[in-house]
Amino acid sequence: MLLEPGERTTTEEQQHQRITAILSQANQTILLAENTEKPVGFVAGLGGPCRRNRHCAHLVMGVLQASSGQGVGQSLLVELEKWARGCNVRRLELTVMAHNARAIRLYEKVGFVEEGIKRHALVVDGRPVDEICMAKLIDA
Ligand SMILES: CC(C)(COP(=O)(O)OP(=O)(O)OC[C@H]1O[C@@H](n2cnc3c(N)ncnc32)[C@H](O)[C@@H]1OP(=O)(O)O)[C@@H](O)C(=O)NCCC(=O)NCCS
Predict the structure, then answer these.
(1) Could you read off the pLDDT of 17-73 as tens digits, one per residue?
(2) Backbone phi, psi, residue 16, to 5°
(3) I need a surface site. Which of 47, 87, 115, 134 has the fewest CB within 10 A?
(4) CA–CA gap between residue 124 and residue 16 (Å, rounded)
């Protein structure tokens, strides 16, 4: 997660507008994982705005701590890939903090490969943290 606790200032109305804008684009989506009571995870695929990068979607995801380690993340990525195939998105890409072993394990398991390292891309608790760039090409 990029934002730290208390850093998000978006109002509910602003968030609603953002989500509506995302869902109005053919190459963007947000998928939710739900148990019987409430959402437990999400993945967003955010495709590029130009002809040259509209086949390429950046993904962001999160699963509630209480529901992690139960395959929710993997299911979300499987569904995101189905969505990508259906709307001509041919490349899924992401960045992940280098110490996030759980996320990296999940991404590798579903076929993402490391493409490079953004050294000291973030500062967390006052310390520089590397980010790993990963991507998966979707066959036609
Ligand atoms: C990363 C995250 C999305 C994974 O979701 P999840 O539902 O827990 O994922 P899954 O249960 O489908 O799979 C997790 C895999 O990591 C493995 N794993 C769990 N803890 C691990 C650890 N400490 N080190 C390495 N692998 C670990 C699990 O065993 C599982 O692999 P397996 O099926 O081969 O056993 C979720 O933990 C999360 O939201 N974390 C906080 C936010 C975040 O990091 N988002 C991603 C930012 S790029």
Answers:
(1) 999 999 999 999 999 999 988 999 999 999 999 999 999 999 999 999 999 999 999
(2) -60, -45
(3) 115
(4) 28
Q: Considering only CA atoms, which residue is closest to atom 5 of ligand 1? A: 73
Angle at 61 between CA 12 and CA 64, to 5 degrees: 75
Instruction: Give dist(CA 63, CA 75) in Å, integer.
Output: 11
- Using the mean position of ligand 1's atoms as its centre, give its distance from the Cα of residue 50 in Å: 32
CB atoms near residue 96 (< 10 Å): 20
What is the whole-number distance in angstroms between the Cα of residue 37 and the centre of ligand 1?
22
Q: How do the domains of the chain map onto residue ranges? A: 12-137
- Global pTM value: 0.93
Q: In CATH, which superfamily holds the domain spanning 12-137?
A: Gcn5-related N-acetyltransferase (GNAT) (3.40.630.30)
- What angle (nearest 5°) sits at the alpha carbon of residue 131, between those of residues 45 and 103? 60
Contact indicator for 105, 134 with CB cutoff of 8 Å = no
Cα 13 to ligand 1 centroid, rounded to whole Å: 31
